Amino acid sequence: MRQLNRSALQDEEAKLPKETSASPVTVLQIGEGNFLRGFFDWMVHESRKQGLFQGSVAVTQPRPSGKPKIDALAGQDGLYTLVIRGLENGASVERKEVISVFSEAFDPYGDWARMVELAVSPELRFIVSNTTEAGLVYRPEELTEGAPIVSFPGKVAYLLYRRYLKFDGAADRGLILLPCELLERNGDALKEAVLKYATDWELPETFVDWVQRHNRFLNSLVDRIVTGYPDRVQAEQWFAEWGYEDGLLCTAEPYHLWAIEGEPELDEELPFNRSGLNVQWVEDLKPFQQRKVRILNGAHTLMTPIGILHGVEHVRELMEHEKLGAFVRSTVYEEIIPSLPYPAREMRDYADAVFERYLNPYIRHRLADIAMNSISKFKTRLIPSLSYYAQRGERVPTGLAQGLAGLVRYYHVKRNGDQFEGRSLSGQPYTVRDDAKVLDTLAGIWADAEHANEALIATVTRILSDETLWGEDLARWNGLASEVTETLAGWTAKEEQQ
User: Fold this and answer.
1) Which intervals hold domain Mannitol dehydrogenase C-terminal (predicted)?
2) pLDDT tens digits, 4-61
3) How far apart are the C-alpha atoms of 131 and 472, rounded to whole Å?
């Protein structure tokens, strides 16, 4: 069977790839992975199809280990297939698209000169990245002329310096940088690291001034589940249907959101909103970040311990569970959303979209994977909602209290070799992954309670009052310890009946 490349396409299909290969490189993309290909590159493709975006993308990898995928992209003339599948307004959808946005794919560690050549190209306007949170970190590094720079922020600092020299610091030759790493204030983090390298390398103050005044490091929040290459059986079925093989086949959910902190006029240059995509230019990212953390991430953290305790393995399975699914929905709608300082209708619409995403039949999201470091996640995602009621002198609502009870019971653990193990309500073992100090603290409290035959309310009070776990004394909150204890006692009674 043929491999996907331009020659494998029919005449009409090949038209856009030919246009792409002839277009100037306006975007340098540092990141060859599934996410950018199922998110940003798909957006560029949609805009090119509508004639709204005229440039092309040069893609390269941030680490030497990414070379095989870069080589594969080059071997397929920069083409790959994206299949979007899942639920959309309650209906199942499946859409296939051959993405054509890359005019070149190259290895910067083998062709550093090309990297520099792109940096000083007058047509270049954007640098887009997804190097993981670990990649968006400053690490001291020597500058050796002609040798590749390893760190991502270091690469950016050097490329901007070469551009500054090429155009003699011209105000209109700065770039727009769009880091997509899952880090709050990601644009600010990249800018800070770039300036540190400028200091380390003793680059001129006029360059530092040019970076700060004439380049845009835009903070943004990205949201889409890109599931990558499907299982082998599904891939082979599609290849037989399409008449070609694609080693870079990628799949993604229908939902997508990119909130970018910048003026709406930037859509003239990056016309994603005009292309009908859910890309929003905003003054402040905080509302988007807060609703994601408190609703999407918060619902995950709410459901996970309780789901595992009840023997549920996946998010979709839990949402389809008659009682547990209803518990998650009611807690989000009736308790979390009222604690947010935003329009309730807007938050409910967002929650509706979240729950539809949870029900995507093509995504198997294991609760055991979400459960890692649940204490710190609960502090960030759900404690603010509990605190909203406690600070008003009100009792924490039942759903949130039950969520905390689930967390406390999930962390009823004992050390087993190098691991910490808990038991579900039916007695099935599970392994808890978290910070060793957190696990030692909780295992110790539960062990002491069992040794002293301590009353459950006393154990719960000790756990909730431990400020090393929560950052504050939760046991002081009106009725919270008794509410958690009541839930735990009910589960214990059911266990004893089994």
Assistant:
1) 284-488
2) 998 888 777 788 888 899 999 999 999 999 999 999 999 999 999 999 999 999 999 9
3) 35
Confidence of residue 497 (pLDDT cuts 50, 70, 90): low
Beta strands in 386-488 (DSSP E): 414-416, 419-423, 429-432
Q: Are strands 126-129 and 176-179 parallel, antiparallel or unpaired?
A: parallel
Torsion of CA 307, 312, 313, 316, to 10 degrees: -80
In CATH, what number does 2-283 get?
A: 3.40.50.720
Helical H segments across 50-92, by residue range: 67-75
Its pTM stands at: 0.91
- Kindly state which CATH superfamily the domain 286-496 is placed in: N-(1-d-carboxylethyl)-l-norvaline Dehydrogenase; domain 2 (1.10.1040.10)
CB atoms within 10 A of CB 49: 13
| Three-class SS state of 415 | strand
Of the listed ranges 3-7, 10-14, 67-71, 453-457, the one predicted with least confidence: 10-14
Delimit the CATH 1.10.1040.10 region(s) of the chain.
Answer: 286-496
Length of the chain: 498
Considering only CA atoms, which of 348, 18, 274, 158 is closest in space to residue 5? Answer: 18
All CATH 3.40.50.720 domain ranges of the chain, comma separated, are 2-283
Q: What is the pLDDT of residues 420-438, one digit of tens each?
A: 999 999 999 999 999 999 9
